[in-house]
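Dear colleague,

Thank you for sharing your sequence with our group. We've completed the structure prediction you requested, and as agreed, I am returning the results in plain text so they can be pasted directly into your records. Please verify that the sequence below matches your submission; if there's any discrepancy, let me know and we will rerun it promptly.
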Amino acid sequence: MLGWVRLLGAFLFLLCACQPLPEVGVEPPYAPVAHTAGVRVVVAGMRSPEGAEPYRVFLGGLEEHLGERVEAFGRRTYAEVLEVLRRGEAEMGFLCTLAAGLGVEEGFLDVVLAGETLFPYQSLIVVAEASPYRELAELRGMPFAFTDPLSNTGHAWPRLLARGLGEDFFARAFFTYSHDRALEAVLDGLAEGAAVDRVVYESLGVRALRVVAQGPVDPPPPVVVPRDLDPKLRSRLVRALLRHGATPQGQKALRALGLRGFRPAEEEPYRAVYQRAREVLP
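Please find the predicted structure tokens below.
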């Protein structure tokens, strides 16, 4: 019910351009900040706080492998998560592919692991199953749900895909600040289409929606650390994530997120995603 109210606020923004988008507050399972934990982990809002419980469960189990307290916290936007990492207010982050590429390009983030996804990581444009739309071009000027301005699958790629379809193609688009809320916007009739991450879409098992377009398979959302993080702590974090991800408890939480585990990752593919998207970023 709470998620529906917030999405209604976003829809009203389309009708009253002078009104700002509603604030999406930080809710359980995330604390607004982490001061007392030995390891602070910031999680980007790829899922709403309500839908991100598996992250809290997974990170809670990480404490056993690190031998110290782990606290997860969130921010409303990917840009705010980047600022937390830029200022050294978290030792580790779970971040979107494009936002991670921006941090790599600007020199303050390192990609240490990539998620091994159960489904290809790519952008999907979805509409209601019963709607008449069969391709992206038919959604011109319709209410449309993006996820975040720095989302690869939920914003940048759809804008790249729509190049040549008119500068006002997404004139009635709004941001929901998570992939599950973008899907809810279509299901609730607040948007005619939405751009989302396929991994989230498939792992949620959403019914009554249909895919009308999809983007290329890109490097999946990574685990990142500040570039100036102590090397010994960085190695401890990586080892602990890999160990915990292989346990039955870790596997259960990861599967709920559409992941099977983690693998070492290079930063250049993430930089390339950011560079590809620069021309359509706000």
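Summary note from our side: The two ends are 31 Å apart (CA to CA).

Kind regards,
the structure core
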